[in-house]
Amino acid sequence: MVNWSEMLNFKFIKKDREPENISDHVQESPIESKDKYNKWKESFVSMINDEEGFSIFREYLSSQYCDENLDFWKAVEDFRVEPDDTQIRARAGAIYKRFIMKGAPRCINLRSKSREKLGEQLKGPITRNFFDEMQKEIVEVMHRDPYQRFLRSDYYRNLCT
């Protein structure tokens, strides 16, 4: 598992075409893999919670230049399980600067009202569910658009055949 500081500082390589080596991801028998890949179209959340599903979907998003929302989702997942309570505020600030604040290097697709509200809330107490509303909003955005494109892509269809 990638820790939060690695996740926030990782430099992703962008591609301008779909990834070619889909078989690099296959770790199970071809039949088991195809069954799992076919199940991903039933549940977006279970796909991104599956390590291989997350990796494949992220690679696809990177090829489409829209991986920042998934990276935010992952950073929030890691934030939620931070073992050191003294690091919560620092991690929240790092996530805010990386993904949410105006001009952030990996700016995510939030409604401006949500962005402003979170900026104000950052001044108060911070709990492990601090980003829950924003994460839900981002999951809805990903489910509505890039996930649907992924399911229609040759990349996904090739996994399932």
From TrEMBL:
Domain spans labelled RGS: 43-160
Pfam families in UniProt: RGS
Source organism superkingdom: Eukaryota
Protein name, as recorded: RGS domain-containing protein
Originating organism: Octopus vulgaris
